[in-house]
Each structure stands twice: as structure tokens, then as C-alpha cells.
## 1
Amino acid sequence: MSKSERDGERRMVERNAGEGSRTVRGFDGAWLAESTGGTLAGDGSSRAATCEVDSRKVTPGCMFVALRGERADGHDFIGSAVARGASIVLAERKGCAARGKALSVLAGKACFVLVDDSLESLQSAALAWRLLFPKLLRIGVTGSSGKTTTKECIASILSRFMSIIVNPGNLNSEIGLPQSMFLVDGSHEVGVFEMGINRSGEMGVLSRVWSPQRVVVTNIGTAHIGILGDRQGIALEKSKAFSGMGPEGAAYLWEDDDFGDWMACRVPGRVVRFGERSADGLESVRDEGLDGWTIRWRGREARFPLPGRHNLLDALAAIAVAADLGATADHVTEGLSSMKALFGRTEIVRGETTVMRDCYNANPDSVERAIGLCDAAEWRGRRVYVLGGMLELGAESDSAHRAIGTVAGNSKADALFFFGEEAAPAREAALSAGFRGSVRFDTDFDELYSALRDFIRPGDLVLLKGSRGKALERLGPLFGMEG
């Protein structure tokens, strides 16, 4: 979008919001139609304060966006969304025309804004909404891993002295990020939004919509390498997060990233490095094993409860951002000490059996880190590693799984359980590496569940690590956790 187009859109949204734009909460159908160039059908004064793309999550006073997907078409669920209280529906003309009779009865129950492309219109509306709040400092967090934890660490520190908003969970995609942006209101001083990609070109969309002034790149690893080709392709796509940044902006880059210097050359503003050597004011770090880290910064000590060096780096990235924005030692230590593990991200659950549940996602880098963390733990009992297949690796899948199998085969594990067809090469590699413990390979979840139920005993340390699609959290009931 050109500068003139941005200026025109800004004038338009300010005209619609009026003098109350600084404290505006929610929007009406007329504003949405003008923001998207859509056709208004129904009461344009109908208001919505939140946005959903899943009809099951719709609540009264919500905008429902009907999106066409590979497995489902949101237009089939408009009736359900309206029944749940959606006040505004953003939908495609063709999708509604094909269901004319079925949708005609809903015309009086919700305001419809009809467009050619629902996703593009959602993004345009989110951009228009963001332009209503020109004083909001926008921070973007991207990288191959650690995005959500870094975002939450930054938020935990900044919330000590600023009013902040973050995108919930990992709503970080070309759908989730613009959807989350409608949570911004005039009370917020800073927005910390995670920016995730799984295809080429997606970061350009996210950068245009959110246009972060500060960008954190946690690392350039191997996540989505099967889609983006190689690490160079990943770095190129991630660097597009800088495209909306001006000379007053800043990028925070890991000091040991192979692509750090390459990315630094593409930053229009300042470059701030983070890490143990680069952290200004960092006095010491002490590894507390599965209990996390003790971090001493500018005379104050934080007990950061998330274990593993990758989590330490996430904390150091957050310190770099927060210090840049004026955080004191008290803000930093209080923020880091109050952190809690996020679901499926290095969760340590203690009981008769201690479980490290790290199964929200997986790529070769993160699997090797998880194995290394469990190997390094002081443990008297058995170590049992349950490794699910890694997805989105493309042509690299077999070689990547063999590499992880070799790591697992040389680990301190007493037993290895591999799950998923993709993991077959990992099992073979573990055996080839000379692993002498118990090894099992399953493609049926119920069989994996039964085998683990019979094998696990009190005192074991169990690692659950696999891609989101493998849903290893379903093993939770074996250890007294929710599945």
C-alpha cells in the first residue's frame, strides 16, 4: 500500500470513528463496509467488539468472518454463528449467493458485509482498525522457535509499567494476527504481537497489517524448512518483518544466529543484539536444571522457572526489548519470576512420574534441545523419551528424522517410543546408533497409549515431544494430567 493510500485510509477511518477515536471500543457494520469496500446488507449500526473465524467460538456481539478453507467453508456455518449471537458477518458474495435461500432468513438477525475475498477483507479491516491508534507502539516477535514464550516474557515485564495488549495464544498467522488486532483499544500503549509464517509471502502480509516498529527475531532454525526451502529462504521471509519499520525502529537479533549479520543489513533502524554476552546489565545466570534459571540483572535476581537454554534466550530477548523501553531491574525480575510454562512448551509436571510436556510443536532443532535438556537433568530414575513425528519438513523429512534418531540413540534414555509414520527412520537410526534400551515404534495412538501405560512406573522422567499434529498431550491421563 502506498503512502497516499495509507493517508487516505487513515482519513477515512478517523472520519468514521470521530473525535472518540482514542478510546473507541468496537466498530459498526457501516465502518466495516467502508473499510473493506464491501456491500452493506442490514443494519449498519450493528456493533461488534471481537472477531472470530470459528463459529463454535462466537459469542454475542461478535463479528464472524466466513473463510474458505481446504477442509471446510465458513459460509456453511454462518447460520450457527448468527444463532450464537454474531452481530456482524463478513462473507463473500459468491459464498452467500450459492446459499441464498438458506441465508435469506438470517438477513434480519445480523448485519452482513459482502466482499469478494473474506481473508483479504479481514486483513484490510484490521489495518484500518490499527490506523485508529497511531500512538500505539507496535512490537512484532518472529523466529523459527520461541516466539510465544518470548512474547509472553516481554508482556510480563512491560505490563509492570505500561498498558499492553498481546495476541492470545499463538494467533499469529495471516488469519490469527488480524483477528487479534480488533482487541486493541485506546487504553493500550504497547502491542506485542507474535508473527508466524508457514508459507512464502505470508510475512509480507503480516508486516503490512501490523507494521511493527520493533521486531524481535528469536532465531533462524529449521521450522517449516520443507515449505520455505532452506534456512536462507526462512531468513529471507523473516526479514520481511522489517519492511514497515522506519529509521526510528529497532530489531533485536540473537548474538549467535548464523544469519544475524545478514539480517542486520536489512534493518532500516537500530540493531540490538541479545544473548549472554550482549545483554547490558546481565551479571550472571545459573542453571537450575528442570527448575529453570536464576538470572541476576542490574543487582536484582529473578527466578525464571522455564528450563532449557532456549528459554533462557527467550528471557534475554525480552530483557533487551524491555530495557530499551525503560524497564527497571524491579520490572524485569518481577516479570520473569512470574512467568509460567505455556501449554505444551517445556511444561514440567511433577508427580509420581515427572513429565516434560513439550509437544506443542517440533522441528529438528527443538527436538534435539528437548533431548539435551532431559539428558542434562540430574535423575536417579529411568528416562523415557516419547518422540512424535516432525511435520512440514518436506523432502528433508527422512534425513531430519534419521538425524534425530541418532541423537536419541546416543542419549541417556532408557527407553525410546517413536510415534507416527514420519518417525520410522528415527527408530532405525536409533538402533543403528547402538541404542541398547527398549525401543518401540507405533502409528496407532491407542497402541502407543497401552504400551506406555504398561511400561511407565513411579520415578520415571518422561519426555513428550512431537509436532502439534501428533497431539501427544493425549497421553496426559497416564500421568494425571488433562489430555
## 2
Amino acid sequence: MLELRKISKTFNRGTVNEKQALNNLSLTLNDGDFVTVIGGNGAGKSTMLNAIAGTWLVDSGKILLDGKDLTLMPEHKRAAYLGRVFQDPMKGTAPDMEIAENLSIAARRGKKRRLVRGLPKAERETYKELLRQLNLGLEDRLSGKVGTLSGGQRQAITLLMASLNQPKLLLLDEHTAALDPKTAAKVLEITDRIVAENNLTTLMITHNMRDAIRHGNRLIMMHEGRIVVDISGEEKKNLPIDQLLNLFEQASGSEFADDKEILSK
């Protein structure tokens, strides 16, 4: 479904602030893969997601999605194939618009639009049922402004919006990092259900080693713009955190130095 062929990206080339964020990185995701991504600060995790989304173009290499070459495609055109949830709950929704209006915009992403007066009753009922499945009590708040919701509620709605059209690839960029542990666990529970029910190919960056092991069917760890650990299946499911740290040290030749991630294990 997704193929990254030796992609590289360097920022501030030729200056004292030059930084190679991606270093000939290659990665292939099969249809339905749910891959968690972990790594220290500056490892290239978000750079990789931004390269896939088209936030910036790579310096070299290829990005293919379901056989389509996205490498030079502008960001707004890639949006028709991708769903994305950001770390900041304030992103991804229009706070001054109703919940139903936000969902309606998401449902029409990549399609021809026309002006209509209000939302059809059948469409509102569809959104009501989808919200009911979140178990957050939002099904009776379709007319409520998104800006009045909590961070967890907004992330849940953003997840729903990102998956409405069953994108070719769902990108989750530390989408629970700004939430308290209880709310983060709820959003991850919703994430697992939405991904499984829609068989969505998913890349999820997380700062939490326990979550990286617990969720998805495959785990990759990045270091200096490349992948140094790639495990899946039962090996991933039964992997102790200490062993994951050892794998990183063996593959990278250095200790895992991101205190935020070690403390969150």
C-alpha cells in the first residue's frame, strides 16, 4: 500500500544549521498494516510523516501509495488519499463550526461540492450513529461547536473525520501526546476500533514505548533518519520494553537518550 524508496531530506543545506532528517530511508507497508513508529528527538519520525503528506518534498527517492507516485504531488492533492490526526487537538477541526458541519466537510474531502441549505436529515442521522459508537456522549451534540469540546473529544472527532472516506493511509502524529493518560487510553481504544473496522493502513508515531508495543501489528524504531528496528507479529506483541531498548542500542550503536520516551514506558 505504501512504499518509500530511499527517501532523503536535508534542512538548511549549506548552513551551520544543516540537518539530515531522512537518510535514504526505505519502508514498505502492506494493505491493512498498523505500524507504530518510535524514536528519539530528531530521529526523523515527523519528517517522514510530513514527507508522505507532502508538507515538504523530499530531496531524493520515491513515495508510492497504492501504486500511485506521490513524490512530486502537492499537499492539497495528496489529501484525497490520506487521513491525518495531529498532536495538537486544536488542529484538524474548525472550532467555530458545529460537530455535524465538521463531519460534513470531512465527508466531502476530495469530491465536487455544491452549496446546500443545511444538512439532509439522513446525513445527520448517519453522523449521530457514528458519534454514538465513540461512547463519548456526543451523539446528542451535533449542533454543538467543536471549540467547546475537551481535547480528547476533539481528537476522537478528528479521528472520525480522518477515516470517514476510508483513506488509503491514515497518519497519526503523536495524536495522544497532549492528552492526560486516561483520555489518551480512550483515544487509543477508539483508534484501534476505527482502524480494525475499516482495515486502514496506518502509521502511528508515539512517544510511549508501551503504546508502541501494545498497538498495531508492526513496530519500527528510527534513529538519525533511518529505520534501525523493525519487528512484527508475535515477536512485537511479546516484546519487553527493556529488550526493545537493547535492540535499539545494538542497531544504532548508541543508547536511547530520549528521557520523555523512557519515562513514559
